[in-house]
Amino acid sequence: DGAAAGQRQASGAVASAAAAAAAGLSSEEGLTYRRIHTKQQPSDELQGLFLGTFGPHGPEVLALSRGISSDSGEEELTAVKLTGDANVPAGEVSFRVRIGRRHRRDGKGVYPPQLDVKARYPGEGRIASPGFTNKRWVEG
């Protein structure tokens, strides 16, 4: 469905989008990311509050944080929805990205040069039917 497609797009571009968000730029895929500036700025540009637009659901606020995955023990970037939608509500993880060195992919030539994407990383996006039913992770 449209929500699933939007969520897959979001997870596939997550690390690139987060980097673009830090610069206040938008992606070319119909998703827009922008850092929400607060008085206390994190020293890590991949952490903080971000505004993302996920297809038909409109803008949503995400809290991105870096940590160690309890599943794999690897470094991971996790995005928790502070605002949600009918499919994936607030407080749930929207996407997660494996950001260890062995997962790094080249970012050159994949996105427009003005986004200045240095690298990409594989991730998973959370999709669900309305009411957060039939929830699952999709690769992106």
Compressed to H and E, one letter per element, the order equals: HHEEEEEEEEE
- How many strand units? 9
Could you report the average pLDDT, rounded to the nearest whole number?
77
Largest sheet: 7 strands, antiparallel
Give an overview of the whole structure:
There is one protein chain. The strands form two sheets. A seven-stranded antiparallel sheet has the order 1-2-3-4-5-8-9, with helices on one face. It has a two-stranded antiparallel ribbon with strand order 6-7. It is globular, with a radius of gyration of 14 Å. 14% of the residues lie in helices and 36% in strands. The two termini are 16 Å apart. The protein has two helices and nine strands. The chain has 140 residues and is mainly beta.
Q: How do the strands and helices of this protein lay out in sequence?
A:
Layout: H1 2-12, H2 14-22, E1 33-35, E2 48-53, E3 59-68, E4 75-81, E5 93-98, E6 105-106, E7 119-120, E8 123-129, E9 133-139
Antiparallel strand pairs: 1-2, 2-3, 3-4, 4-5, 5-8, 6-7, 8-9
